[in-house]
Amino acid sequence: MNMADLDLSHENILLTLRKHWVVFARDSIGTLIVGFLPLILAGGLAVAPYGFSSDLAFLRVLAILWLLVCWLALALIWTAYYLDIWLVTDKHIYVVEQIGLFNRQVRTVALERVQEIQVRTEGFLQTAFGYGTIEVHTASGDEESAVFRGIPSPQMVRSFVLDQIERFAKIEKENVELATTAKEQEKLIHLVGHEVKGYLTKSSAALASIAEGDFGSVPEGVQTMAGAALKETRKGVDTVMNILHGADASTGSLALEKKSFDLKNAVLSVAQSLQASAREKGLAFDLFAGEGEYAFAGDETKLRDHVFRNLIDNAIRYTPSGNIRMDLTKTGPIIRFEIKDTGVGISQETMQKLFTEGGKGEHSQDVNKESTGFGLSIAKRIVDAHGGKIWAESEGAGKGSRFTVELPT
Amino acid sequence: MGGVLPGFFSLLAWAIFLGATALSVVLGVIVSYHWFRYARNETASLVAAVVYGAGCLLILLMLLSAVLTLR
Fold it and tell me: Fewer CB within a 10 Å sphere, N or C end of chain A?
């Protein structure tokens, strides 16, 4: 649909109306009769036995010119018929009118402002063919009414619009309730999340003390078990943190603490900390970074922990064998981090929801049971908040993948 | 007719023909632009443009033949 001057991207069109065809037929037949009349008369005079038929040649030229003028008028009648339109969406009523050749008028009436709808059916044609005029009056006295003439089945349209207004009011009410519930839910997530995080942090501190021998030596079995429990508890803390950050990001309350730092150092430190995990799996793990400092003003902690760590950790998790290659380059004002792996790859279907909340990959549960599905969504929001871009490319499942982050300095 | 004002009506008829042709073309461009820009169905716009063009062509041919008979 090309309405050119109407932005209906956030609305659903429920009803599209054009003037009744009788309106066009009435106007066009009338115009054609008026157009042909002089030509018929000139033809009649030419065969009349009055002896002045030879002087009618110029009159014939004028009669055909008149026919042409009427034909052009017919084109304008068609334009008005074809381009005058009435749209009812789930939020507004749009009355689009083509006035003459160069004026196009779009009147918008919000459904919640409609106070009264009047319908008029006047005369024989309107009654016989069931069309008429519909007038929409708004609550504001200053506002002009939206009028559409020649509308088919005006009573039915009126009922439809009234139903729609009722539905709109109901949805608005439900939206307010939903927003309140979502806010309460968010508060609850934060409360529960912080409580759980507090307990887990205490547990991990206690387990770390046991595992690291702060309370003296413990049997090897206990130490191993404490170490394993510590690892799991830390994963639990990470999961809770991810959910909390995800909740912050989804409500737009993601706060950045921006300061200047060396991005290369940040990426290097993350890569070094995860190198052991890659080695354990027997993966080739390489980072190539350009010369010099990569000064960047941004939230170092969030970029390091939720963007770079996430991407590198994912690459390790989702690559059973083969290699992982990271490139950090600087081109003009753009710092580009690219991580390419020979892992499980991403199908087209997964690619669509990869950066959405809870948008886990199809292999995520096989490879990473703790996956919350928030990781890439949070990474995207953080990169977006820095004015950057993040995207993924893959030739398909089993063909590896490439994630790229571009940050403007 | 030619005897009253020799050549005048013929000249006037040619001027009418040329003016009418120019008017048809200019108006055709303007209305077609509107049809294609604002219409919801491009096929209908195309049909309308073709019908408009064919009608204009037919009437202009009639006008031309009428002008040619003025000698």
Answer: N
Residue A82: its chain B contacts at CB < 8 A?
35, 39, 44, 48
ipTM over 0.95: no
pTM of model > 0.80: no
Determine the number of helices (DSSP H) and then strands (DSSP E) in chain A: 11, 14
A336-394 per-position pLDDT tens digit: 999 999 988 888 878 877 887 665 655 655 555 556 667 788 888 889 888 899 998 98
Instruction: Find the CB nearest B59 among A1, A55, A67.
Output: A67
Q: How far apart are CA A370 and CA A203, in angstroms?
A: 19
Structural tokens at position B19: 């003016």
How many angstroms separate the CA atoms of A398 and A403, rounded?
15
CB contact under 8 A, A79 and B35: yes
User: Counting Cβ atoms within 10 Å, is residue A265 exposed (0-12), middle (13-18) or buried (19+)?
Assistant: middle
Distance from CA of A31 to the nearest CA of B (A): 14
How far is it, in rounded angstroms, from Cα A123 to Cα A340?
75
Q: Which of B12, B34, B44 sits opposite A98 (nearest CB)?
A: B34
